[in-house]
Known about the structure:
The protein is an all-alpha fold. It contains 36 helices and two strands. The N terminus is likely disordered.
Amino acid sequence: MKSEARTGPGFWRTVWLLLRSARKRAAGRRNRQQQLLGNRSGGRATNWSGFGFVAAVFFMALINGAAAYFVSVAVENGQRFDVERQGKIVVSQNFLEVAQQALQTSPALTNRYLDLQVSTEAGRIAEKYGGKPADIAARLREAVLTMQKTGAQALVTREEASPGLTALAKSGGVATMLGSVALLWWALMLVFQGEGLELDLQRRRHPMWEWLFSHPVPAGGVFLAEMLSPVAANPMYWGGPLFVIVLYWFVYDPGLALLAGVVVGIPVTVAAACLGKALEIGVILRFSPRTRGAMIGLMGWLGYASMMLFLLGLFVVDKLTGALAKILTPFALLPWPWLRLFLGGKADGTFSFTAGVLTCEWAAAVTIAAAVWLGVWGARQGLSGTFAAVDAGPAPSRIGETRFGREPLYRKEFLWFIRDRSAIVQTILIPLTVASVQVFNLRGVLSQAQGAWNYLCGTAILFGTYFLWVLGPKSLSSEGSALWIALTWPRGLESLLKAKAWLWSLISSGIVALVLIYAAFQFPAEIWKITLVGVGWFFFGRSMAEKTVTLVTVTSPSGEPEKIPWGRRAAAQLGMLTFSIGVLTQQWNIAVVGIVYSYVTAAAMWEGFRARLPYLYDPWSEKLPPPPTLLHAMVAISILVEGGAVITGIAMAVFGRDNLAVAQAIGYAVSAVAVSIGVAHFLDKRGVGLREVWEWPAKAGTQTRHWWRGEEGGFAKLLLLLCAGAAAGLALGLFARGYSAILEQLPGIGETVRQGKAEFLKVPNLKISYAVMAVVFAPFAEEYLFRGLLFRALDREWGGWRAILGSAAFFASYHPPLAWLPVAMLGATNAWLFKKSGRLAPAVILHMVYNAVVLR
Length: 856
C-alpha cells in the first residue's frame, strides 16, 4: 500500500477502481432519471446492492432472450410470407385434415361443418397475423375449391411452410432479410445502450481520462476502463450472451449453445459496448455543446426505444413481422447473409459451429479495433485544443433571421429548440416514448378503437394528457439554472412559464390532431362529433399544460432541481383523466365536467403559484395567497356534496328507503349548514369576517356604504336590489320552465324528461322536501360558496367575463346535464349581480325565486 501511494495504482488496479466508479455513477444516474420522470416518492431509487444488480441482470437477460425469440419468429414469418407469395395459404394441420376429409365425403362447399371450420380458421389467422376475417375466409374457400377441381395443393401447414432457423440457408429472400434485420436491430440496441438511458442532457460530460491530469495512473488502464465502463454499469450487456445461447439452441445441441454464449456472446457484447463508447467519445469531444446533448440523448433514446420495442413487440410479433415483410419486400432482392453468417450457415444449407464462432469472433475483433481507433482518434483531436470552437454560440446572423411571431417569449421558446438541439430529444422523443409505452399498456382499449370513433378519440386524448404530464416536469428540469435567468427580465418568470404552457399545449395538440384527423377519415359520419372533441381538447390541453407548469422548482446550489411536493403533484392530477373517460364512454356530461374542472383547478394552482413565486429562493418566508382562495372554495364545495351524500345515507338507514326525499333534504340541509358555519369559522380565524364574504370588496380609494350604518338611501337601495333580484329570479325561472317544455317536445330527450317528472311525482314527500331544500337552504349555502368564495377568487385570477362564465360553468357542472343551460345562466347572472351590487343578498333572493318557480 505504501508503494502504491508513492507510485499510484497499477494498470489492472486502475481499471478495477474506474469500473467500480462507473457502477456507482450508473446508480446515481438511475436515481436522477426517476426524479426527472416524476418519481412520486421523491426519494432515492430502491438499492438492493448486489441482489438488485443480479435481479437487473436477470431481467435484461429475459429481454435478450425475447430478442432471440423475435429473430426466430421473424424468420418463420418470412418463410410463411415467401410461401404465400407463391399463391398458397398457410393453415393449421387440423384445418388441412378437415378440408381433405370434407372433399372426400362431401365435395360441395355447402358442407356446414367445413364452412364452420373455414370461419374459425379465418378468425385465427386474422387474430394472429392481421387482416379481415371475411377476406381470409373467401381465400380459404377459393383454395378448397381449387383443390376440389384441380387437385393442386393450395393449402400448406405452418410446419411445412415455416421450418425455422434450421432451414435458413434454403429459405427465400424475405425470410433471410427479416432475420438479418432483427439481428441488426438487436446489435443496434446493444451499441446504443451505453451506461443507461440519459435524460439530464444539460450537464457537461467528461471522459474518464480527466483522471490523467490529476492522478498518477497508467493511461492505458484509464482508456481500457473507459471503453469497458458500459459493461460494468449496464446490466443489459451482462444478459447479452443469452441472445446468442437461445439462437444457437435453435440450430445446435444445448451443449454447443451454452459454449457459444461464452465464446461468441461475450466478445460480441463487449464489441457492441466498445463501439457505443467510441461513438460517445467522438460526440463529446467533437460536437458543440448544443449538438452534443442532442446526439447523446438520441443515442440513449435509440437504445431505450429498441429495447422497449423488443419487449413490447412480443405481444404483436406475428403482425409486426408480417407488416415489415410487406413493406421491405423490394429490398429482399439484396443479399442479406448476416444472420446466416452469425449462426455459421453455409451455402449448401448446412451449419458449422466452428464457422459461426470464427465469424463472430472475427467481427467482434474488428469492431473492437475500430472502436479503439475511433476513441483514440477522438481523444487526440479533442485534446488538441478545439474546445473554444465547439463552445462558440450560433452565428449572430442566424439569430437575427429567426422570427416566430411578435411575442418575444414565444420566440424565446422557439429559439430554445434551435439553439439547444437536445431540447427536441428531451421534450418530445423521451416523453413521447414513455407515453407510448403507457398507451401500449392500454392496448385492450386500442383493440376496440378501430371499430368505434369515440374509442379512437378517447385514446388520443388519453395519450395527449399523459404526454403533457410527462413533458411538463421534464421540460422544466431540463433547463436547470438557465430557467431562472428570467427572474431578471422585465416581464418576469410568470409570463415565461405561461409561454411554456402555450408551447406544450401546441406540441400535444399537434399529436392529438393527427389521431383525430385519422378518426375523421375512418368515420366520416361522425366528423362533427370529432370536431367537438378537438375543440374540447384545445381548452383541456391548455389547462393541463398550465397546471403542469406550476410544478416548477428552483435549482439547488449544486444545480439539482428541488423535489416537487407530493401534494402539488396530486393537485395537478385533479380531473386529468375525466375528459378522456367521458369521450371513451360517450358520457359527454363527464367530458364537459372534466374540461371545466381542469380549467378551474389550473386557476387555483396558478393562484397559489403566483403567491409563492417571490419566495422560491426563500421558502421559509413564503406567504399564502389571501383568503378565500379558489382551493378553499373547491374543497368546501366538495365537502358540501360528499357530506350531503353521506348524511343522506345515514338518514335513509334511520327513516327507511320509503323516505328517500326526506333523507335527501335532511342530508343537504345538515351538510349546507355545517359547511357554511365551518368555512365561516375557518376564514374568520384568518382575518376574513362573514361580512367581508357577503360584500364585494370596495375599490381602492373608495368607501363602501352600508345601510345599517345609517347612510342616506342605503336601505332603499338594498330593497331595490332585492326586488331586482326577485324579478330576475322570476324571469330566469320562467325561462327554465319554458326550456324544460321545449325539451319535452324533442325526440329522444322528451321521453326521458317526461319519465323523470313522472318518477319525481311518485316519490312520497319529494316535492315538499325538495322545496325546503332548494328554497330555504340551497340559496344561502350555494351563493356563499359559489359566488362569495369561488367567483370572488376567480375574479382575482381571471377577471371580467371569463371569471363570470368560468364560475357559472363550474356551478352548472354540479347539476344534471339537462339543466346546465338555465343553471349556468343563473350562475352567471348572480355572479354579475354580486359584483355590480356589491352585496350577495340580491343573488340569494334571485336563487330562492328561481328555485321556487322551477319546482312549482
